[in-house]
Design a protein that fits this description.
The chain has 465 residues and is an alpha+beta fold. The chain has 3 domains: 226 residues, no CATH class; 98 residues, Lrp/AsnC effector binding domain/regulation of amino acid metabolism (RAM) domain (Alpha-Beta Plaits, 2-Layer Sandwich); 77 residues, no CATH class. 44% of the residues lie in helices and 19% in strands. A hairpin with a 5-residue loop joins strand 2 and strand 3. The longest helix is centred in the N-terminal third of the chain and has 28 residues. It is elongated and about 95 Å long. 29% of the residues are buried.
């Protein structure tokens, strides 16, 4: 166990050892020195284990082939080379961390296993360093979210797959990460706290749901369904680096946002121009459709009953009528093919023209549009406090409307509707975290950086974690 001075004992109080002397002049200096020695030993053992792992030269070609193979198939040599050049440190740390702790060599053991049993390599290392390396070998990579942090001291990380939380003592990462940051990393648990070993691979929040869904689909394969996440990542250690590369090397290759059915998320709109005066007849026909539920004045939702263990329905399409124009909106090509023919048949001879638009939904672009302002100014610059006031008012107006507008990633439910459904509640929470994460990453000079989204949590009756 790594000993640290007891923070509950005031320095001027009697020492817990019973000597009668003050803690500051008795055991505190020794405990402080032992803690510093343990930290130094742990810090120094990491490169030592990495060097030991690479000493198995006959194993490296096979490991390198498995580690980089999927990336070489997915990306061009130029794309991969440029990314590795830019993210050199993170790629190297990930490579050597997984090699040491997860890669099972021809002898059926990992390099860490062999290191710990090699008296020449580990026979004289500090007990804290041995405990750390043993934990490193047992721990697996996973996907975490920062729940809280004290910059320069610690993080509270929540495993998004097992739902367990751990307090991590970490100086550098606690200064570079933000609340709600998502990351792939490996946490070594020592007693009640954790230490990060290996890489800190940040995951863009707008790709977080995709990453979670991808991992869950992979684990749902035969042979892996019943294993724990830790065993899964030990067995399939190549999944996490591959997903991370997908998210950063070329985001449009191999990645797509999906709806609840797993369909690629698109913004599809079909506009039917009706004969003059056809709106009233179209309204009557739409009201008579069994598939449609009235959602408001001259608007309907196409509802499907789903057996997903939640006993809830899913809105797969929205239909609205304005004058003599009917608009059908869906968020995937699959859903369009399911409802389009039925709507065509119902409107039939009333239609004189049909116009269709189809766009891939870019959540990052949507996020930028929602919180951006025109940075080009003519004439005298506007004072920053005035810019903030104007932008904050614009954002408040925008998000008050947003609460009651259909959102594609919520299957065209409004945030208020979605938060009432267990199947969609977590998606709303994820959207709110995305908004806060975007704002936190803006520079202090950005007038939208200080906008608070806490009122949105209250409006939706959600407890902010």
């Amino acid at each position: 166990m790594i000993e640290t001075p007891d923070p509950q004992v005031p320095l001027t109080s009697p020492c817990p050892c019973g000597s009668g002397r003050k803690y500051r002049r008795c055991c505190w200096p020794k405990e402080k020195r032992r803690a510093a020695e343990a930290r130094a030993a742990i810090h120094g053992i990491t490169p030592q284990v990495g060097a030991y792992a690479t000493s198995f030269e006959e194993e490296l070609p096979e490991f390198e082939s498995i580690f980089f193979g999927p990336m070489k198939e997915r990306f061009s040599k130029e794309e991969l080379g440029e990314f590795i050049r830019l993210a050199d440190d993170a790629v190297k740390v990930t490579f050597f961390d997984i090699l040491a702790a997860d890669y099972v060599m021809y002898n059926g053991r990992t390099p860490i296993d062999v290191f710990l049993d090699d008296p020449k390599a580990s026979g004289h290392i500090h007990p804290a360093a041995r405990e750390y390396v043993e934990g490193w070998g047992r721990a697996s990579m996973s996907l975490y979210e920062v729940q809280d942090l004290i910059p320069g001291e610690s993080l509270v990380l929540k495993d998004l797959l097992t739902r367990r939380s751990v307090t991590v003592l970490e100086r550098s990462a606690s200064q570079s990460l933000l609340k709600w940051s998502a990351l792939f990393t490996r946490v070594v648990r020592i007693g009640d706290v954790g230490l990060i070993t290996g890489p800190v691979l940040e995951v863009p929040r707008r790709k977080l749901e995709w990453a979670i869904d991808s991992l869950k689909r992979a684990k749902d394969e035969p042979g892996d369904r019943s294993v724990t996440w830790a065993r899964f990542f030990k067995k399939h250690w190549d999944y996490i680096p591959f997903l991370w590369f997908l998210m950063w090397v070329s985001p449009h290759k191999g990645m797509e946002l999906v709806n609840i059915d797993g369909d690629e998320l698109r913004e599809i709109s079909v506009e039917y121009t009706l004969v003059p005066g056809g709106g009233a007849r179209a309204s009557a026909r739409l009201n008579a459709m069994e598939e449609l539920s009235e959602g408001g004045r001259e608007s309907w939702s196409w509802i499907e009953d789903r057996d997903r263990g939640t006993m809830e329905n899913v809105s797969v399409a929205m239909v609205s009528l304005e004058g003599d124009t009917v608009v059908l909106r869906v968020n995937s090509s699959e859903r369009e093919s399911k409802v389009r023919k039925r709507v065509d048949d119902v409107l039939s001879e009333l239609v004189v023209k049909v116009e269709r638009s189809d766009e891939v939904i870019d959540m990052e672009a949507m996020g930028r549009e929602a919180t951006s302002v025109d940075g080009e100014q003519e004439g005298d610059p506007i004072p920053l406090d005035v810019q903030r006031q104007v932008v904050h008012e614009m954002l408040a107006t925008h998000y008050r409307r947003w609460l009651d507008e259909p959102v594609p990633v919520l299957d065209d439910l409004t945030p208020r509707e979605a938060v009432a459904k267990r199947s969609h509640r977590q998606r709303v929470i994820s959207l709110l975290k995305n908004l806060e994460d975007d704002a936190a990453r803006r520079t202090p000079e950005d007038p939208g950086a200080s906008f608070s989204f806490s009122w949105l949590w209250r409006e939706l009756k959600l407890r902010r974690p």
